[in-house]
Amino acid sequence: MAVATAKKPGNGKPDRKHNIEAMRQAYYERIVKHSMTPLWKVMSSLVPDEPATRCVPVVWHFNDVKSLVMEAGGLITAEEAKRRVLILENPALHGESRVTNTLFAGIQMIMPGEVAPAHHHVSSAIRFVLDGEGAYTAVEGEKAFMSPGDFVITANWAPHDHGNPSDKPMLWLDVLDAPTINFFETSFAEDFDEPMQATTRQDGDSLNFYGSGVLPDGTPAMNRTPVINYTYARTRPIIERMMQTGDIDKRHGARVHYANPINGGPVLPTMGANLAMLPKGFRGEPYRSTDGTVFVCAEGQGTTNVDGQVLEWGRNDVFVVPPWKRYSHAAPKQSVLFSISDRPAQEALGIWREGK
Ligand SMILES: [Fe+2]
C-alpha cells in the first residue's frame, strides 16, 4: 500500500509522528469496512476504572405528578391505554423510557369503575401504592386490594389486571425490569381475551400462606416470592419495633428488605426492595453502591445529598440515586423511605459492590 511520506518542513526528513498517524487513520478506515474496530481506542470507556453512569439524580414531587396524571384521566381511559401510566424518565436518558439504566418507573392511575385489562409479560413489575384506597391488582388468582404503602409483586409471566371499584382515583408507582429484559432481548408479552382474570383466592391469602412462618405442603422452590401484597399494615410495625430496639443502621436507618419466604432471597431475581424508618433528626452517614436506586418517601420529609446535589423530598415524592454516587439522607422528622433497585441481579452476577 502506498502511504504518503510526510516531511518535516525545513530539514527534509520524514515526520514519523505524522506519518504513523496517517497510517493508523487509513488502517482504521479500512477495518471499519469489515465491521472491526480497534479496542485501544475505546478501552477506557469499555472498561472504566470505576462505575460510569449516564443517570443523574432527580426528584419528582408528588403534587406536580398527581395533577399531571389526573389530567391524563380526562384524555384517555385505562382500557384504551391498557395502562394509564406517565413514565418517570431520567432526564439524562430522555426518550429511553427508563429511570435508571436498568429500571423503568411510572406513575399509574386508575379511575373509579375502570379496569386495566389482564395480560402477562416477561418483565417483572412491582407497585408501591401512593394515593387512594380500595383499587385492586389481581395476580395469579388473588385479588389484592391496595392501600398506601403496600408493595405488590407481579412476577415474570404472572397474569395481572387492575380494577378500581372504589369512588376515588388510585395512584401507584410502577417499577419494571423492562430495560434489563430488553438488554437481553428476551421480552414476550400477551393480552388475555377476558379483561379480568378469575380469582379463586381471597385478598391476603398469599401473604398468610407463605409469609407466616409456615408453608403449605408441596410448596415448590421458587426464585421469586409467591407473596402478592406485602401490606404496609404488616411491614411498618416491624421497622417501628426496630427503631424502638435500636436496630438503626447509621446509613439506612431501621431497614428491612422484602424477602422471598421460600428461600430468604430477594422478592424477584431482577429487583429488590427495602423499607426504612429514619428517626427524627437522622443524619445518615455517606454510602454508595453499584445499584442505582429509586426511592419513595412514604412518610415524613427530608433531604438526600447526592454527590453535593441536595434532593428535597416529602410524602410520595420519588427520587433517584444513580449507581456509585455517594449519598446521605437527613430527616428533620421521623420518615419512612421505600427503595428499589437491581441489586439482586447484580449480586447473582457477582458484580454488586458497596462502599462509603
Ligand atoms: Fe403489566
Compose a concise summary of this entry.
The chain is built from 8 helices and 23 strands. It has helices spanning 16-32, 43-46, 62-73, 78-81, 178-183, 205-210, 232-245, 343-349; strands at residues 58-60, 85-87, 104-110, 115-121, 125-131, 136-139, 142-145, 151-154, 160-163, 170-176, 189-191, 229-230, 254-257, 272-278, 282-283, 288-289, 293-299, 302-306, 309-313, 318-321, 327-331, 335-341, 354-355.
Characterize the structure shown.
This protein has 356 residues and is α+β, with helices and mostly antiparallel strands. The chain is built from eight helices and 23 strands. The protein has helices at residues 16-32, 43-46, 62-73, 78-81, 178-183, 205-210, 232-245, 343-349, and strands at 58-60, 85-87, 104-110, 115-121, 125-131, 136-139, 142-145, 151-154, 160-163, 170-176, 189-191, 229-230, 254-257, 272-278, 282-283, 288-289, 293-299, 302-306, 309-313, 318-321, 327-331, 335-341, 354-355. Strands 1-20-17-22-14-13 form a six-stranded antiparallel sheet. Strands 2-3-10-5-8-12 form a six-stranded antiparallel sheet. Strands 7-6-9-4-11 form a five-stranded antiparallel sheet. It is globular. The termini are far apart. The structure holds fe (ii) ion (FE2). Fe (ii) ion (FE2) binds at residues 119, 121, 125, 160.
